[in-house]
Design goal:
The structure is a single chain. The chain contains seven helices and six strands. It has helices at about 15-20, 25-40, 60-70, 110-115, 125-140, 155-165, 175-185, and strands at about 5-10, 45-50, 95, 120-125, 145-155, 175. The chain has a six-stranded parallel β-sheet with strand order 3-2-1-4-5-6, sandwiched between helices. The longest helix has 14 residues, at about 25-40.
C-alpha cells in the first residue's frame, strides 16, 4: 500500500487574493485537508518564498520576474503567509521553495523520503504553475500521483480545464475532492 501525503501548494494570502474566484475553492480544499488528517495522511504545505533582494530570481525567468515586479513572494511579508482558512496545524510540515516546482530549491524530497512517502496528492494555486511543475518533477522522481482537480485553481479556467482534463490524466489519477475522500475513508 502506498504511503501518501497531501501537498497543499502556494495557498498564500497574495496568491489567493489574485486567483480565488469565489467558487468555494478554500472550503473544498479545507475538506481535503480535514479528510487527509482524519485518514492519518500527512499534510505538507509548500510555499514560495524569495529572500529580500531576491538573489534567486533571474531576469530570464519570466514568471518570477513578473512576480517580483508586482512585489510578491518576499519571505516575511504578510502576503506570503499561508491563508488562515487552511492554516497548518501543529506537526504539519511547511516547505519553502524558490521556483515553480515544490521540489525546486526546497528540502521536500528529503522530507518525503525520510517519511517513506511514495505517493503524492496534489492541490494548489496555480494549476498551470506549481501543480504542473510539481507533477512533472514528481513523475520524474517516480512518485505515484493523484491530482484533486477541484482543489487546484488557475486564473485561466480554460488552461485549468485542459490541464486537468487532458494532460494530467496521462501522468496521474485526476479526481474530485469528494471522490478522493470516499476512496480514503474506511467503509
Amino acid at each position: 500500500m502506498a504511503n501518501n501525503a497531501l501537498l497543499v501548494m502556494d495557498i498564500q494570502r497574495d496568491i489567493v487574493d489574485i486567483a480565488d474566484d469565489g467558487s468555494g475553492y478554500l472550503p473544498r480544499l479545507r475538506r481535503a485537508i480535514d479528510g487527509a488528517r482524519a485518514a492519518n495522511i500527512p499534510v505538507i504545505y509548500v510555499v514560495i518564498g524569495l529572500r529580500p533582494g531576491r538573489p534567486e530570481v533571474s531576469t530570464r525567468n519570466r514568471v518570477l520576474t513578473a512576480a517580483v515586479r508586482d512585489g510578491l513572494f518576499t519571505e516575511g511579508d504578510p502576503g506570503t503567509d499561508i491563508h488562515p482558512d487552511i492554516a497548518p496545524q501543529h506537526g504539519d510540515v511547511v516547505v519553502t521553495k524558490r521556483r515553480g516546482s515544490a521540489f525546486s530549491g526546497s528540502d521536500l524530497d528529503l522530507v518525503l523520503r525520510v517519511r517513506g512517502i511514495d505517493s503524492l496528492v496534489l492541490t494548489g494555486i496555480a494549476t498551470s504553475g506549481v501543480v504542473l511543475h510539481t507533477l512533472c518533477q514528481a513523475g520524474d522522481l517516480d512518485f505515484d500521483l493523484t491530482v484533486l482537480a477541484d482543489a487546484c485553481l488557475d486564473t485561466d479556467p480554460e488552461v485549468h480545464a485542459v490541464l486537468t482534463g487532458k494532460l494530467f490524466p496521462r501522468w496521474a489519477d485526476v479526481v474530485t475532492v469528494e471522490d478522493w475522500l470516499k476512496a480514503i475513508t474506511p467503509q
